[in-house]
């Protein structure tokens, strides 16, 4: 399958496929006599893995690490499970941080509603101090 067909199948642009190839996430494909890249079924599965991992919040570095642990008779499953558990912890930490940010911003907005005048903005005052 050519780069264009692969891009079309996964609804991404061709440059994204080339980018994943340059980053070592996708294996270098065979080329036709005219230089077109030809991806096999394994490359399709790898690209699907990359895109689905990104949807779950994994970074490209983490995805590369996961790809290197592809399951062979289940021997790497526990390692992958541990990495997935760590990602869950990262997500929970981010949710907590976002909640803290939301509360802080909400307090600023409330103070603005209570103390706002035409020449004074509590939000700006708070951010400056």
How are strands sequenced across the largest beta sheet?
Answer: 1-2
Share of residues in helices: 55-70%
Residue stretches low in confidence (pLDDT < 50, at least 5 long) are: none
Number of strands: 2
Integer average pLDDT:
91
Ends distance: 58 Å
Total DSSP helices:
6
Task: Give the SSE order as H and E letters.
Answer: HHEEHHHH
Tell me the structural class: mainly alpha
The Rg value, from CA coordinates, equals 23 Å
Strand composition percent: under 5%
Global geometry: elongated
Largest β sheet strand count, sense and barrel closure: 2 strands, antiparallel
Structural domain tally: 2
Main attributes?
single chain, 129 residues, mainly alpha, 2 domains, two-stranded antiparallel ribbon
């Amino acid at each position: 399958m050519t780069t264009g067909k692969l891009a079309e199948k996964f609804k991404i642009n061709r440059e994204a496929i080339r980018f994943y190839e340059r980053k070592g996430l996708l294996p270098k494909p065979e080329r036709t006599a005219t230089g077109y890249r030809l991806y096999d079924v394994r490359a399709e599965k790898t690209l699907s893995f990359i895109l689905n991992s990104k949807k779950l919040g994994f970074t490209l570095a983490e995805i590369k690490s996961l790809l290197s642990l592809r399951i062979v008779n289940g021997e790497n499953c526990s390692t992958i499970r541990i990495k997935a558990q760590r990602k869950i912890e990262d997500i929970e930490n981010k949710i907590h941080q976002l909640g803290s940010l939301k509360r802080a911003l909400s307090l600023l907005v409330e103070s603005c509603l209570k103390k706002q005048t035409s020449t004074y903005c509590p939000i700006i005052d708070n951010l400056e101090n």
